[in-house]
Amino acid sequence: MSLQELIDALRTSFIQELSTTISVKDLDSLKTKYLGKKGSVQSLMAELKNCSPDERPHLGKIINDLKEEITSHCENSLVRLQNEEIESRLTKEAIDPTLPGIKQNLGRIHPIQQMMDKIVDILNGMGFSVLTGPDVDTEYYNFEGLNFAPDHPARDMQDTFYLENDLLLRTHTSNVQVHTMEKYKPPIRAIAPGRCFRNEDISARSHVFFHQIEGFYIDKDVTFADLMSTMEEFLSKLLGEKVITRFRPSYFPFVEPGMEVDVRCTSCKGSGCRICKHTGWLEILGAGMIHPNVLKKGNIDPEEFSGFAWGMGIERIVILQSGIPDIRLFTQNDIRFLSQFT
Ligand code: DAH
Asked: What long-range pairs does 179-184 form, CB within 8 A, spacing at least 24?
């Protein structure tokens, strides 16, 4: 075959191969195959030395032209193939912006926790520090240290969950009182939010576990007037400026005197409704002056110091404020219920 024939054959085979090249990657190999240092065009150049000297310039130019031709084919094809590849990716990976999105459910703070946070916030602002637990405690801190008589009905198995080794699940957050007195010296101004447990039938109105906040203040010369004014201030911050309170004598073994604090029904303003069971009042909390026996259990001299304490249920406040018909809703994890509390 003459060199001219070789040149023509190479052109034909290039055009043929190019027509079946469908990716940028294949084009790259094709280019190397023809134009690379050890490529076909280069071998044609090497053939030149076998030609007669007068043919060389002419054939040399033809080979150079072929080289340019192949180069320009490759460049054009590159642009075309790149565009095709982008085009095909765009159709394959297309997104439809008119499709509805996937909704992300935002978590919320549980209504009980929201109320605890609110109460803790208010009482922090009034100088009370937060203490916690223990939820599992001894009979001593839950009952005896709080001046409960040995035969007090609350100590009954029917009311209290007893565990092994003299332990029980605390029935109220008041158990924190004697623990705290043993650890700190007055003045003590503390609150203890947390979970409590009672062995009761589960119904719309009661559950085996629920939440309380206990508060107490021990110092020199703490009086019943301090207790009343603290409750007034706290409840007006919690329920609104215009809340009307009523202090009713009551009995709890760990306070003397003891009382219950009611507020004018926030729903009917006192005229009587379902929420206040037509009494016009809502029972909100128990309180009193800490019994000298309790102070003594906590190694605090009742001759030198006095204090007040109060305790309130959290579920009850949320129920009253939101008109929730069933305490079980708090623990059923029903998104339809929980998402109503923003
Ligand atoms: N521990 C009481 C209960 O669970 C509530 C209570 C009443 C706490 C009077 C107090 C108090 O600190 O003084 O029903």
From this structure: 179/134, 179/141, 180/131, 180/216, 180/298, 181/218, 181/294, 181/295, 181/297, 181/298, 181/299, 181/300, 182/298, 182/299
In percent, how much of the chain has pLDDT > 70? 100
Q: For residue 307, is it within any domain?
A: yes
> How confident is the model over 195-200, as a mean pLDDT?
95
- Ligand 1 center–CA 151 separation, angstroms: 18
Residue 19 falls inside a structural domain: yes
Nearest atom in ligand 1 to 254's CA: 13
Which ligand 1 atom lies nearest to the CA of residue 310?
A: 12
Check residue 173 and report its DSSP letter: G
Q: Range of 330's domain?
A: 111-338
**Tokens read off for 151:** 């035969």
Distance 259 CA to ligand 1 centre (A): 9
Kindly tell me if the per-residue pLDDT of 305 is higher than 90.
yes
What average pLDDT is seen over the chain? Answer: 93
One domain for residues 126 and 81: no
Measured by CA distance, the residue closest to atom 2 of ligand 1 is 311
Task: Look at residue 153 in the predicted model and tell me its pLDDT.
Answer: 84
In a shared domain, residues 192 and 163: yes
CATH number at residue 189: 3.30.930.10
Res. 37 pLDDT band, cuts 50 70 90: very high
> Which amino acids bring their CB within 6 angstroms of ligand 1?
172, 174, 214, 252, 255, 258, 286-288, 309-311
Question: Are both 144 and 265 inside the same structural domain?
Answer: yes
Tokens encoding 258 = 């003891």
Q: Give the closest residue to 78 by CA, choosing from 28, 32, 123.
A: 28
Q: Which of 92, 120, 155 is the last residue of a domain?
A: 92
Number of folded domains in the chain?
A: 2
pLDDT of residue 68: 94
Please indicate, yes or no, whether residues 17 and 159 belong to a single structural domain of this protein: no
